[in-house]
Amino acid sequence: MLERERVSVYLAWRSLARGSRTSLLLNVAIIGLVFTNMILLPSIISGSVDLFNQQTIDYQTSDILVRPAEGEQYIERVGTLLETIDRVPGVRRASARHAIGATLLARNRSVSVPVTALNPRDEVEVTTIHERMKDGEFFAGGERGEILVGQFVSGSEDAREDLFTSLGGVRVGERIEVAFANGVIRDYVVKGIYETRSYLVDYSALITWEELESVMDGQVDEATEVLVRTDRAHELGVVKRGLLEAGVQEEVKTWREAITSAVEESIETFGIINSISMLVSLVIAVVVIFIVITIKAMNQRRQIAILKAIGIHRGVIIRSYLLQVLAICTLGTLVGLVAVGGIEAWFTAHPLIFPDGELVPRFDPAALVENAAWLFVVSLIAGYIPAWRITRETVLSGMRAA
Amino acid sequence: MMIRVDGLRKTYRMGNVEVRALDGVTLDVAGGEFVGITGPSGSGKSTLLHLIGLLDEPTAGSISVQGVDVLRLTDDERTHFRLTRIGYIFQDYALVPDLTALENVFLPTLARGMAEYDGLERAAALLRRVGLEERTDHLPAELSGGEQQRIAIARALVNEPALLLADEPCANLDTHASEMVLDLFARINREFGQTVLMVSHEESHQRYFTRTVRLQDGVVVDDSGRASGDGDDDQARGRGDASIYPVPFHHDHGDP
Ligand SMILES: Nc1ncnc2c1ncn2[C@@H]1O[C@H](COP(=O)(O)OP(=O)(O)OP(=O)(O)O)[C@@H](O)[C@H]1O
Ligand SMILES: [Mg+2]
Q: Is B107 an interface residue toward A (CB < 8 Å)?
């Protein structure tokens, strides 16, 4: 049987070598574009999912998020809990947060956002908000009478430039009035403005734990959430189990589990868009290969008849066309890979600036392989059909074809 | 018996008109014969050769080649049969346009499973034999009709077929080239025992034939000079002229 393969390879090789260089290059370029197109959208989607995940970890949940147990409003005796958590292997640091509803007033405008109290020395170990100060400074610890606001809270003087109602461009050093949900009203100096580009985080405000205790008029030993940073070396699942084994009674979730179902749904929607785009690319590939092989085989009707007349099996002839498809796809995929590599290099140097952050497309090797495999499979089928049909003709009628 | 044709009919239907290209041909050809087929244009010579060459199917009748009832073979088996036992020279050459002269002649040896080096040597030797050693790397489109015809001849001979079917192989050749080709046929016929069936109008070719069959309106009207060579079939093959086939072939005449 190897003899037959030899003939297929020989015929395919000759046909590619003697055929039009231009049309070969064109075919390769089209397949290359199809492949790039198949890869690009998923990589942008992966990139934006990555961005979202990273923002979630960096500013909202850290690695593991502890929340009040089912039916409870607060995590009680949080001081003891923090000590317990800090002793669990794999935990680097835990930070308690206490969020309280409030209305902020400045420049004759008001916004209602959650105000979160935290312990700066713990917080800087579990999130990176302190690295995202647009203006002013993060808390050093123990500040009283000062507040940090997100960029959307400060906003801009021209309300039309704002996504949400804001305090009209309030600046560092200005005073704002805060009316807490418990009825207490305080005046604060804006110590800093942070810009994480995560909508949720940038539309909030931060105060120190000491300030919260002053507002509550007493010691506060309850939190609304505890953020836990782990060592990179430890698997999140293992650390989570460690927390549960150490007797943490609250709801413990890794950041991935903590991402709300709404987000999961939007990722699912991305997935559907992705599949549609892949399907469209494949249809283009099918059409291109089908046309290319149909034209090739139609032009070679007489040649096909001659080959059969001198004793070359039909299967050998069909396979010689499939080998040409394979060659076009292989070259096309290589061209596509080079293009993808170029695009990746470009975007790494110049990330896409989205309102919610800088997006670097992520090219997943598994997706590359999967898309290439699909491309080959559909192309081979698309090439097989015309090759099969046209080689079916009888020798004599094929010979009479011009 | 090399070829046994019995009551062969081929009818083409063109609307209401029936064209009887062959109208009951019965013919036996023994191994080692060199048969000339003559007859006026349209008498059915090409049709008969197509049928014996397994390129077409008759409307009625039977054909056996080397004892094989070829009409019962599957499509794949016919292809294999053509590759291994028959050399066919088409009236219009039928060269593969994408292949050079050498590659055209080499291809059947490749399909036959011969080593590439041996196949190329064989192809080159045959091209030399037909006087085309200078043209081996040309594509058919770059060659004259007579040159293409000689490539077609070399290609038909390269697999050392037991049966050579030639449809006016000298139609585009001058007297000198025609004689060279006919000499070649006569030698492979004599030295390698290959049976030759050749269509020709030329009176001057008659002296090469051991037998002449004349067709008219699809029937055999004259069958003269019938050879007595029955029985020796292709066992008569000896090692002949090494300038024709420099590399020996492993004959596999087993059933496809
Ligand atoms: N495909 C076809 N359809 C219809 N009629 C055909 C077909 N092929 C051949 N014929 C007819 O069959 C008859 C025999 O044709 P054939 O080609 O065998 O003649 P020939 O003896 O080879 O002639 P020539 O010497 O001109 O080559 C002719 O009348 C021809 O018109
Ligand atoms: Mg004819």
A: yes
